[in-house]
Amino acid sequence: LLTFDFMAPPPQDNLLNSMYQLWFLGALDNAGALTALGRKMVEFPLDPTLAKMIIFAEKLGCVDDVATVVSALSNQSPFYTPKERLEESYAAREKFQAPESDHLALLYVYIQWRKNGYRADWCTKHFLLPKVLRKVKEVRTQILDICKQQKMHVASCGTDWDQVRKAICSSYFQNSAKMKTVGEYVNMRNGMPCHLHPSSALCGVGVPPEYIVYHELVMTSKEYMHCVTAVDPEWLAELGPMFFSIKQQGETRAEKRAKERKHKAAMQAEVDAYKEQEEAKAASADIGSRASTNASAASRHRIATPGGGALGFRRPTIGGASAGGSST
């Protein structure tokens, strides 16, 4: 990919970062080849993180619920807060908030809208944008159609919201943060300080969760996290083993470094095997092209020409003699 002849080549750092993101999501293997998961993700016209979330949700039995969350994340927020009715709009929003997840609040909004017959007047009463929810419904229908085409099992987890939170964690473990003080977190990968947004459902809870994942950062006066979900630390180690691990009791630093070296050696062996396989394919293709070139060259020598002997065209004869000969 780095040597591909683009008409307008993007910066190399952008390509490397994109490939790195696809690798830790599981779409690419250690050699950079597309995995089975990556081939499935290609079928969804979504951000790779959202496509991964839907596919992983099949293992947890909550594709129907996660499809709603993904559809809501693909659109703008359905909440609106008119300046002249701020207190009423905040009170209406609190009815949909879940103390452990902003993503679940989006899911709960859609469920309630569906129960009320997709009515626009219900949206207006609860300070929701009906146009946005209709778009969410349209995107959700398209996503579920693709799931059915891929023969995925579409099911709902009911009220077992932990399954939905785990599916969210499977895609956003790279955006994980650990609590530093009340309302302030630190990104677990780069140490960047980030804060809960005042509109987040987790901002007003009594005991904030220690570990969270977020959809994206919004840069204003501070680095605010948009759309936050509380996660269990075990999920981070399970779903993002390239970044996180649980310290084993009694394990020394030397043993941990030995494990890391062994893992790196296995990755390098996989890359070397892939390179050898590609070189063998290239050599086989080169031999095939040479054989076809030799065959085409030989066929050019066998082209029939008038008067060309046994392979040429015979001159027409009259009465058993050539047209230019004399008859006796």
How is this structure best described in words?
- The chain is an alpha+beta fold and 328 residues long.
- Helix content is 49%, strand content 11%.
- It has eleven helices and seven strands.
- The protein is globular and about 85 Å long.
List the helices and strands and how they pair.
Blueprint (H helix, E strand, L loop, with lengths): L11 H14 L10 H7 L5 H13 L2 H11 L12 H9 L7 H14 L4 H6 L4 H20 L11 H12 L3 E6 L2 E4 L5 E4 L14 E9 L3 E8 L2 H7 L13 H49 L15 E2 L2 E2 L6
Parallel strand pairs: 3-5
Antiparallel strand pairs: 1-2, 1-4, 2-3, 4-5, 6-7
Helix pairs in contact: 2-3, 3-4, 3-9, 4-6, 4-8
Uncertain ranges? 317-328
User: Roughly how many Å apart are the termini?
Assistant: 78 Å
Strand order of the largest sheet: 1-2-3-5-4
Per the principal axes of the C-alpha atoms, what is the gross shape?
A: globular
How confident overall, as mean pLDDT? Answer: 84
Helical fraction equals: 40-55%
- Beta strands, count: 7
User: What does the largest sheet look like?
Assistant: 5 strands, mixed, barrel
Radius of gyration computed on alpha carbons: 32 Å
Which class do the helix and strand fractions yield?
alpha+beta
Number of helices: 11
Give the strand content: 5-15%
Give the SSE order as H and E letters: HHHHHHHHHEEEEEHHEE
